[in-house]
User: What shape does this take?
Amino acid sequence: MIPTAFDYQRATSIDDALAKLQAASGGKLIAGGHSLVPLMKLRLSEPAVLIDVARIPGLSGIKEKDGKIEIGAATTHREVAASALLKQVCPVIADTAIEIGDPQVRNRGTLGGSLAHADPAADYPAVMLAVDAEIHIKGPQGWRKVKANDFFQGLFTVDLAPNEIIAGVQFTPIKSAAYAKLHQRASHFAIVGVAAAVDVKGGVFQSARIGLTGAGTHAVRLTAVEQALAGKPATKATIASASEAAAVDEVNSDIHASDDYRRAMIKVFTRRALEGALARA
Amino acid sequence: MPATPVLPKLVGQRVKRREDPRLIQGRGTYVDDLKIVGMQHMAFKRSDIAHGRIQSIDVSAAQAMEGVEAVFTGKQIAEFVAPMPIGTPFPSPDHRALATDVVRYAGEPVALVVASDRYIARDAADAIVVSYDPLPVVVDPELAMTGKPTVIHEKFANNLAVPLVPSGTGCTPDGSVRDDTAVDRAFAQAELVITQRMVNQRLVPNAMEPRGVVAHYEQGKDYLTIWSSTQNPHILRSMIAGMLGMGEHQVRAVAPEVGGGFGAKINIYGEEYVAAAVSKRLGMPVKWIEDRAEAFVATTHGRDIIGYVELAAKRDGTVLGLKMRLIADIGAYNMLLTAAIPTLTMLMASATYDIPAIRTTLTEVFTNKTPTDAYRGAGRPEATYFVERAMDMLARELNMDPADVRRKNFIKADKFPFQTQMGAVYDSGDYAKALDAALLHSKWDELKKERDAAKAQGRLVGLGLSMYVEVCGIGPSATLPTGGWEHANITVERDGRITATTGASPHGQGNETTFAQMVADQFGVAFDDVTVLHGDTAVVKQGIGTFGSRSQAVGGTALHMASTKVKKKMAAFAASLLEASEDDLVFENGTIGVKGSPAASLKFQAVAAFAYIPVPLPRGLDEPGLSADAYFEPPNNTYPFGCHISMLEIDRETGEPTLLKLVAVDDAGHLINPLIVEGQIHGGLAQGIGQAMIEEAVFNEDGQLVTGSFMDYALPRATDFPHFELHSTVTPTPVNPLGAKGVGEAGTLGSTPSIVSAAVDALSGFGVKHIDMMLRPEKLWRIIHGQAPRQSSGQGPRPGSGQGGVA
Amino acid sequence: MGPERPRVRARDMMTQLSIKVNGRLRKAQVEPRTLLVHFLREQLNLTGTHVGCDTSQCGACTVLVDGRSAKSCTMFAVQVDGSDVTTIEGLAKDGQLHPLQNGFWEEHGLQCGYCTPGMIMAGVNLLGENPNPNEREIREGLSGNFCRCTGYQHIVNAVQNAAGRR
Assistant: This one.
């Protein structure tokens, strides 16, 4: 219940945050804190310094720029869920944000925090994969961009160094996308969560991107399903058949879902997400 | 002349609660809200293994921390805190507040820290290093009762806390004589026998307020005050006084606002004994507040009984006999009432049916788990579950409507009071009436059509029906180690206001309101002129407490009795002032007057004032004043009953069950405040549904509670329930003059089996006859898709299970 | 259990903060690790906000931070330095109960009262965003708040009452 002691600093800008991270030994960034603080209360994380980035001007916000959507890392889940812009041009993002936690959690938790923490059952990673988002990161060496597909690497492991900060994500909005989730009945985290984005032209699936969370150590693309859809007629029958290919090599197993149940659910929720995406095409 | 205001009759009305104004403004004082100058904080170091010998405890780092006042190991505590007493008569192993040599469940305390604030106390407790010699762990009671792989308490061979107690037909009440002739004959004559092993699974009570205690020993006065989140301050006082070698007059126990109890706050816990003892030893006030992770392992669990059920019947649905072999997994130790709870399952084995031959047997087994004790329903949900599931299986086997099978076997309405084969004397009942009301209000025939139509569309929809009869209003003193009466005092003050004290100790039940309604009606005064005090042994001289749905039936009756005594005396004062006969007086609208003579009346306050300066003292009265005590010793328990109907749909692809509808008909006799009664029933339904659908305490083979936080133990949320439909019938009890039976726990009894039966109904096409709780989606999916059951390997990272956050 | 590094001495890290709580500016010195809920309860003696769990689920600790609901057990007091916090004690104005407080009273939306302050604050957030929620929206809006006593039905009624629909 009670964290170990730490020093607290507030960053005034991204560069200030980076400087403070460099100066501190054992420092961590905190935005909404709704991934980090629970860990600290369990004493599973004991940073010596917390650098608060929640109020850095310009770090939050949702905007459209040159046909792409940019979401600042410090944007709360509530803001994402309520965004009129997103609901209009890329509703799957808003649909995913509202699945996270509960209203209080959504008022504080941030996109950047969620991505950096990369809980294997978090919702955002699946949809970031589906929209092929680019994650914008700044470090002492300057800026870099990482595709979502390269960002999530392993259990709580992402392509982000301890001295770097996520500034935001950028992606091309897509209307024909949906998120489908099987809720763990206690935590409401995803036993399985699938985000699917489909590009339909002339009654045919030109391409698809499908992100899966909850099943393994980190969120992954279901490339076999994507391939099974490409070039095929955009129908429920195609979806049903392609979803049979929804699988990953290693699947989690716990009291809430054993591995074979989870494997079956990957297929079910892939199908549901694809049907939802097709309905919006 | 201004008209005398007409005071409305309050009993039976939906009166808003008097408790609410302070609580809705955050002004209720719970135990963690208390601060005393010089108060220290206690934190415990608890065992992280389920069974092991303590090799060493290194407290040096903790002792060296700034702000740490004292550190005690279990052995040091044992020097001044004796083994904890229990309330049940079975032999029991010693149970120390802190383990001295061996830990027997994960979470058992081994050391404690006293420090100036809770943050330092937690840092210091974490700095204590304990090393253990692990011992084998057993979490399966059916394995434990063979003595394998380990014996948890030396003197209890095969881990049998209670080896085998038979009860029912052909048994003496103490189980020493057992004659199976009638039961054997019933089964021999049966045309069919339903046989099923059923599990009524372990639950974690999880009141929203974790436990806590503040103990303040005042050296100068040799007096201890203890505040605790408890359901029974008087019992707490007696036990603490006994443990500390003090007199009851030297201990004051206070239950401040208590944030829910549900039976788990009846027990007097090691933390309470230790806080008191440490406060006395150090001469400082100490506070201990449980955090939720502790609450999961250190507060008693509920249920956890296996039932081997056999129901003998004729093909026309008549039940000839019942056998129930019960195995109760009580965890590592006996707590105050642990051993008694499963005996209530036996007591209620007849349910609502006139079953002529019943054999129940009970074995209680130690395992390396948190001890069990009372949890809302405490033994009766288990009985209802076992019998109602068997009745449902019988109905299904005979292709009979579940309602018809019940009706055929009811104890008839003209047979009450009815003594069952288990020795329970049911006070009153009309089970057919409750069943009919449920069928009517649920529109049973239409529901069946709706279900059939849904099934025809390929949807997995099911209906379940359950009767229940509950034993509560606990109870005659022979049945409770503390005595079962309740005490009340009524005092009419000089200014005419009425102060009532009750030994009942509400923690959400609203007795400040309901008791005031009763007393106001009895004296004909305004609601606001009656104050109800409780929860403080310095104010309420005697009492037992609130559990077993007894506040109204027992506590309310005691109040009624005390009020009757005071009213009689007050009538004598008034009669003398009015020069009338006492028998002609009515108390109404704040006056006492002669029936039918509006001019011959006095203000209530005027009579009260006179009673305190009675010059002259009226003939027939020896003393001034208006105050009386009463103890109500109930001649029997009370037996509320009802019928619950559920409609459930199961997602064919995922196995997720959704409760579509729940109709509840409950009969608790006369109701003082229907609004509060509804709240009690809703709360009981919520916990009953929780047991059926989403709650389960799961231990792994190492004795670790895998569901050790709300990340893995699903406490029901608002989104988990449909709108409950409540109805009632009223069959008063003759056991008390109020005709009130008690209702606090009833909601847990019928809901649970009705939901499981609905699930079986929904999945009947797959040939399933019974499904053990909880209704995990995966379990239902396996039935639907013909997949064999799997043991979860528990491998791999556990996403969203406390190793992640909630972002 | 966390990276190896020298333990920070708690007392060395005291931080100044200034928070407006229930309309009043409060200044204090705290250890950074002080949870907001402990700061409110123990330093400001606002004990109406309660602690019900340690994994950020139960919502008993819900307060408003800059007008929006938040779980004060999952925040450090230092994070809200410069912010506006409203607790249950700050809801009633000039002795007048907030419509939600009235609603809970009218509809018997509480029993033991422990979850109630957090539940009411969550209700304030809900009605602030959606002044006329239907039953499903109410249940979802309160999905971050546990109650073990009421079964939620009277709480739903209480919110409907406050929304002027009962």
